[in-house]
Structures are given as C-alpha cells and as structure tokens.
C-alpha cells in the first residue's frame, strides 16, 4: 500500500482526475446555492454512537455542544432503532438499510450468514439514497467509510475523497482511496493517511463546501469511523474524562446472565471477563472522548456551511449505524438487541424542520431514506419499504409505526411497541450457541432494561400480543427465521 500525505482540494481536481465542484454549470451563475425546494443535504453517519450518548438527550457526562445545538435548532427522533444484521459486523447491513430503505433480507444479495460478502453487498437492482438523489438532480459527493460493496458506491456518487472501504482501522493509519471515475478502486490505488480519521474526513468535507460553487444542490455524505474502537482520541479530548469520575450505568453487571448466542465475538474481547468496574469506567471515558472529538469536528462542518452562507439552506442529518454496550448488561459490543446497541441518534436540522422537538414516535433506520427524500421533494424508488417521518414533522400524525423490530444473526429477535419490549433468543444450529428463552422489559418504567418481567403472570397477555406482532413482522420482512416458532418459551428463573 502506498503512502500519501493529506492534501487539500484544489481547483485542479483530485489526483484521480475527477474535477472538483468549483465551476458553475454552463450558462449558469456561480452562486453555490440550492435550487428552490431542493435544499443542500449534509448527511453524517457515525460508527458506534448509541442513541443516548448526547448531552441534549439527558446524558449529563458526555460533552456534545454541537450536536446539542443541532438538536435545539431541529428535530430529534429519539425512538429510532436499527433493523439489525446477520453477522457480527452489524455496520455493513445496518448501513445498507439506511442506503436502501429496505429490510436486509431483501436489500442484500443473499442470506447466508457465514458468507461475509452477503452481509455487505447490496443488490444491483436496488436504488440507493444517494443514487436517487443524484437522479433527482443532486450532485452527490462521499467522504469516509463505505462498508458496503464498491459497485453500489460507484452508482451512487459523482465524486468523493478519502474513501474508506474497510470496516475499521487505526485512527492514525487510515487506508483510503481517491475518487475513481471507473468505480473499480483497485487495491494498488489504496494509500495510507495518518491524520486522525475524524479530522481527515472533516478536512475533506470542509474543503468540498468551501470550493463548491455550482448552481446545483449537493448531497454530501460524510461517514466517520468514530467513535468505533480503537478509542484513541487526540488531546485535549483524550484527557477530557477522568475514569474515576465516570458513573457506571444502572444496567452494569460483571457478566451477562446467559448465552446470547455470540458471547465471544471480537467486540466482547475488548474487556476482561468478568467485567471489572474500573476497566469499564476507562472504556466509557475513552468512548466519550471519541464522541466529544467527533462533535467538535462536526462543528467545523457547520461553521464551513455558515461561512459559505448556505447553512440555513441545508438539511443537516446526523445518525449512526448502531449503538454499543460498553459495559452495559455485562456486554461490550453491538451484537445484541438491548437498546444501548439498537437505538441510534437521528437529528434533522434545516429548512422547514420544527425546532427543539424530540419526537418519540417509533421509527426504523429503513425510514431515514424516505424521510430525507420527502424533505427534499424527491420521489422514492418503487422498491423502498421504509416510511417517511415527514407527516410527524408536519403535525399530521403522531405515529407511523405501531411496532419496530430488530434482528441479530439467527439467535435473537426483538419487537417493541414503545412501552413494552420482547426479546426472543434462539439456539443456533449453525454454531451450537444461544439460549431458548425470552425477555420482557417495561421501557416506560425501566428504560435501562434492568428487570426482565417475562415471568410475571400479569404480563402474559402482553407477551402473547408482542409474540404475535413479532411473527407477523418477521414474515413481512422476509426473515430467514420466519418459519421458526415464535411462541414464547418459558422464561428462565
């Protein structure tokens, strides 16, 4: 792999030969502003940022002034969960759900859990969010992580920079590509960047905004690799949180009480067993440091938009591919269906968005694409299955979904109606892991999911109703386990 120094955009174009967006279209003035009714879009997706780890959402420890400001000036969808994934690398299928607005069983090329390609390659006949925006007249530009196949990327973006096709890397040794007009991205064109990843991608985003002068709305996609491990934030952020001041979450336990079906996946090996309180405090401090550094870098993107005079003309979207346990429930990773792992931040700020609202309507990450399209007046592909949140933003409805479900491999399924949440665990015939059992949580009175109330006879009707909802949802989604009984097994004592 060749080495290459970080470079700025210039009017000469990228090293791959793709011209930059600093020249007006023929016969049009060079104003850099969107067309009426078509706002610019800055779509930011983080890696591993769980839904509650933002100051504006009630977390009193983590410092996120920029995201707090975006939330105060826009609308936050607080009850958004990911669809899930069929492998431990939940990032790739989760991003595919965001890109396509389709459940992973129909968005991906196959359902073989042991085939890593099937967990990342999007079907060639499916149109993606940036592809759809491009077809609607948007200039699409990508920066950062694309954890799906290169073919789906190539048909979605007309430009890009610092493109990372790997799932993760050291934050100061980031293998990237320049934009390739051929869409091939041969391995020999990959090179290493040593600027910290969050700053590297932000530099590219800021340069794009500063140089953009085309009389055409843009869709700028910025995909960070933070706060994913290794959690090695640069100073002064690395020292921002003293682990001795970190309070353990209410659902911290030293060991998970039963086999979830994937207890020794890579993420779970990041801390010793049983979990040590002091070690977990250190992990949380490092996690928050990464988030605060990310927040500051997002602030640079905001300031670039303001300096350009287009911030108020831009739809700003912030979300994440999934959450993370970091010690909650005795777990470290995202390979589970507790809310710390499936609930994600989702903030919309821009033209026409209500200010300072925190919506609690149930939503799935397959609803993000339809919502962005709706806010931009863009027609959706026929195959899109997600539901737009726009009626909720407009005050026309309080609900778009009665239930939301999520999956993990062949060992876990979840459904929630917002108040109650049922998790069904299976024993995998493929890996001979997992436990046949259920959990039921009352999220209204137990948001940290500390008390499994499935054994309470008073909740039998709730379990029956949610089990029925889960079975229907699995069938509608094309779930690989749709023919497997969902009838609740007896809860364990």
From TrEMBL:
Pfam families: Sulfatase (PF00884). The keyword Protease does not apply. Residues 39-378 form the Sulfatase N-terminal domain. Residues 1-10 have a biased composition (Basic and acidic residues). Gene3D superfamilies: Alkaline Phosphatase, subunit A. Residues 28-38 have a biased composition (Low complexity). InterPro entries: Alkaline_phosphatase_core_sf, Sulfatase, Sulfatase_CS, Sulfatase_N. Residues 1-38 are annotated as: Disordered. The keyword Signal applies. Keywords: Calcium, Hydrolase, Metal-binding, Signal. Its cofactor is Ca(2+). Belongs to the sulfatase family. This is Sulfatase-like hydrolase/transferase. The lineage of its organism: Bacteria, Bacillati, Bacillota, Bacilli, Bacillales.
């Amino acid at each position: 792999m060749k080495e290459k120094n970080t470079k700025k955009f210039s009017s000469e174009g990228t090293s791959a030969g793709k011209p930059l967006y600093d020249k007006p279209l023929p016969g049009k003035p060079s104003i850099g502003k969107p067309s009426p009714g078509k706002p610019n879009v800055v779509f930011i997706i983080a890696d591993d940022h769980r839904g509650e780890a933002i100051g504006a959402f009630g977390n009193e420890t983590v410092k996120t002034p920029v995201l707090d400001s975006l939330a105060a000036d826009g609308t936050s969808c607080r009850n958004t969960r990911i669809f899930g994934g069929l492998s431990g690398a939940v990032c790739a299928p989760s991003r595919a759900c965001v890109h396509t607005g389709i459940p992973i069983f129909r968005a991906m090329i196959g359902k073989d859990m042991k085939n890593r390609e099937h967990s990342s390659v999007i079907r060639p006949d499916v149109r993606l969010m940036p592809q759809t925006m491009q077809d609607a007249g948007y200039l699409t530009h990508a920066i950062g992580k694309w954890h799906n196949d290169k073919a789906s990327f190539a048909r979605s973006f007309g430009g890009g920079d610092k493109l990372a096709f790997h799932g993760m890397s050291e934050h100061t040794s980031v293998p990237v590509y320049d934009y390739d007009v051929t869409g091939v991205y041969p391995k020999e064109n990959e090179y290493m960047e040593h600027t910290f990843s969050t700053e590297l991608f932000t530099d590219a985003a800021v340069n794009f905004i500063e140089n953009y002068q085309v009389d055409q709305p843009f869709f700028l996609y910025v995909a960070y690799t933070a706060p994913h491990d290794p959690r090695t934030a640069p100073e002064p952020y690395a020292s921002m949180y003293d682990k001795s001041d970190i309070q353990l979450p209410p659902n911290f336990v030293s060991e998970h009480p039963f086999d979830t079906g994937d207890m020794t996946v890579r993420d779970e090996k990041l801390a010793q067993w049983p979990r040590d309180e002091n070690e977990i405090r250190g992990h949380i401090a490092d996690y928050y440091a990464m988030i605060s550094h990310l927040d500051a870098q997002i602030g640079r993107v905001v300031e670039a938009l303001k300096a350009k005079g287009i911030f108020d003309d831009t739809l700003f979207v912030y979300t994440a591919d999934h959450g993370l346990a970091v010690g909650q429930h005795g777990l470290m990773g995202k390979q589970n269906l507790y809310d710390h792992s499936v609930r994600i931040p989702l903030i919309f700020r821009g033209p026409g968005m209500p200010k300072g609202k925190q919506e609690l309507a149930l939503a799935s990450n397959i609803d993000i694409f339809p919502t962005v399209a709706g806010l931009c007046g863009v027609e959706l592909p026929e195959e899109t299955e997600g539901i737009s949140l726009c009626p909720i933003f407009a005050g026309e409805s309080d609900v778009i979904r009665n239930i939301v479900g999520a999956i993990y491999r062949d060992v876990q399924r979840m459904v929630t109606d917002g108040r109650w949440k049922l998790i069904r665990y299976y024993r995998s015939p493929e890996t001979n892991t997992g436990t046949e059992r259920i959990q039921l949580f009352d999220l209204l009175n137990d948001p940290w999911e500390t008390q499994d109330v499935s054994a309470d006879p008073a909740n039998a009707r709730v379990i029956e109703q949610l089990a029925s909802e889960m079975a229907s949802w699995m069938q509608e989604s094309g779930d690989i386990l749709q023919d497997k009984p969902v009838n609740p097994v007896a809860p364990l004592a």
